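Prompt: I keep going back and forth on a fold encoding question. Comparing notes only helps if you start from a blank page. Show me how you would write down a chain together with its backbone fold. Please set it down just below, with no commentary around it:
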Amino acid sequence: MDYSRYQTLNISRRGPKQTVLDIQMRADGPGGNGKLPTAGQQGHLELSEIWRDVSADDSVRCAVLRGQGLGFSGGGDLALVQDMADDFELRSRVWKEARDLVYNLINCDKPIVSAIHGPAVGAGLVAGLLADISIASRTARIVDGHTRLGVAAGDHAAMVWPLLCSMAKAKYHLLLCEPVSGEEAERIGLVSIAVDESDLLPRAYEIAERLAAGSQSAIRWTKYALNNWLRQAGPNFDTSLALEFMGFAGPDVREGLASLREKRPPRF
């Protein structure tokens, strides 16, 4: 499998037999210092497509997803949000990518481990929480900011948050855009494990290597069966995603976008 075509992801191999694929969402700037990975047009597309390649690559037994720089993911690039509000064709394309991101993750037969540090929002958060084993630093800051932007919480949230952390907690965090620390995320069941940030990558790689060394048929078939819980929630996800993208054509997203650019509370 040729991964060189990916421009926004740093991809390498790890493990004794090089069967663990390390996928790092790239931040802008030299080495990503002082930056967060953000999903512009190319990044959003690549994050939706990479899971097809992971699934098709017979040399890969497990994948680790992580972020570069100050955090796991910084969400959608504001220029992309503006373009989606203005351009029906682009909005339609990104809607399909957002749908593919969720279903490609669910249907990828290889186990996926996420290592979440710092801020985690947007498309990166989708992948982080839909990973089969999600590991967060205790100080990670998980936020689903859709309603703050003026659109419905689509992406993945209606599908997986109620299943992971209860409907009551899901509504509290999704309606209010209330942040969740990594430590709290573990307590309520939103992530698998919370660890000190210094232990985050070593623990993620250790778990990935254990998965890569295990019975591949047993692990993959167990994942497939468990993910039927998510497939059953497919209609909920499809509805939420359609409503989110309807919102991108409405007036509230323009105020939400302006408030983010001006660093002020929105006035809906």
Summary: The longest strand covers residues 9-14.
